[in-house]
Amino acid sequence: MSLPKLNANSFEEKIYDAGEACLVVFSRKTCHVCKEVVPKVEELQPQYEGKFGFYHVDVEEDKPLYQSLSLKGVPQILFFKDGEYQGKLTGNVDDEEIEEKIEEFL
């Protein structure tokens, strides 16, 4: 299962306007660590269906969005709730770390 992709416009709508509790994975196709982390996030998505949103941004396709958030490096998983940034996980994180962070917002 692949994550819904966001661009600058849909990011604004889904994250800030809708205000749902969610995560956004920022990654790059050529990043080896991203190739490990993104599938972990995709595997977690079904168990949170309807309770927590999962989204993806390819930093090569939407570099201005990535830069506007002052992010450095990938992969990065940003967490949002009620339209507010809540924190992030960076690098090669494991399933448990991601789940613990999600549980904070449910």
UniProtKB/TrEMBL annotation:
GO terms for molecular function: protein-disulfide reductase activity. It comes from the Bacteria. Coiled coil: none annotated. CDD domains: TRX_family. Signal peptide: none annotated. One of its GO terms (biological process) is cell redox homeostasis. Pfam families: Thioredoxin. Residues 1-106 form the Thioredoxin domain. Keywords: Redox-active center. GO terms for cellular component: cytosol. SUPFAM superfamilies: Thioredoxin-like. Belongs to the thioredoxin family. This is Thioredoxin. It comes from Desulfosporosinus acididurans.
